[in-house]
Amino acid sequence: FHEHAVYDGPAQIDYILKETKQKSLLYVGLSQGTLMFFTMMSEKPEYNDKVKAFAGLAPFNKLVHMVVPPVALIAPFAEPLLRFANLLGLYEVLPQNSPALPIARIFCSLPRNRVLCSFIGDNFANLGSRYINETRVPLYLCHTPAGTSMKNVIHFDQLVKSKKAQKFDYGKVINRVYYGQRRPPLYKIANVKTDVGIFWSKGDQFVPPANVKILLRELGSRVKKNHYIDDEYYTHLSFAIALVNAKYLYPDLLEFLERYRGS
């Protein structure tokens, strides 16, 4: 996500502003997209002037209270396993060309397997099956998991274990080469100057309410919209695919964005 934040995100913003001949835009981020925003503003604070307002869905800049059971269980062992995979020349996690994905799509397309697929999705991906169309699960599996790099997974594992918003930890020796110090530097949430809207939910296990409350305190007066969905069945992925978003999310999200349209 660091590379997304310091290279891809700024390039996308600059391209959009160039093509539309605008001076600033609205940024809506979900999950890692919110982490990208906070990281981008930490490392490239000049982009505050190019973002009128930021709407963060399931937002986080650190992972202090993540409670997804499988993730919490494997976190202590994830980094050594992933580094070993790197030694074997494996640099990608869950790539789109993985043979497991078409098998999963076929399996979950069978009506008798939908309950099992929803159960797995709820417990491993915080799917929120109560508010989805289960017949579309095979379609979702065409696009997710979308894959990521080993380094990104290791970085996330470091965030879970350190409970800090910190840069990638290469180890004490190599950290001195990259950062000039033994420990990785922290990202600077204080560099966020643009107006922020926070959209979070009771049922999110990846970014639970306790985690968001820390973020709200850190952002302080920059938060201009604080929208909490008080429903334990509305989960992390519900922000993207829930059938109730027209009621729970979109009206408040659009109201926040409309404040800045044309400004």
TrEMBL record:
Domain of life of the organism encoding this protein: Eukaryota
Gene3D superfamilies: alpha/beta hydrolase (3.40.50.1820)
Protein name: Putative lipase member k
Source organism of this protein record: Ixodes ricinus
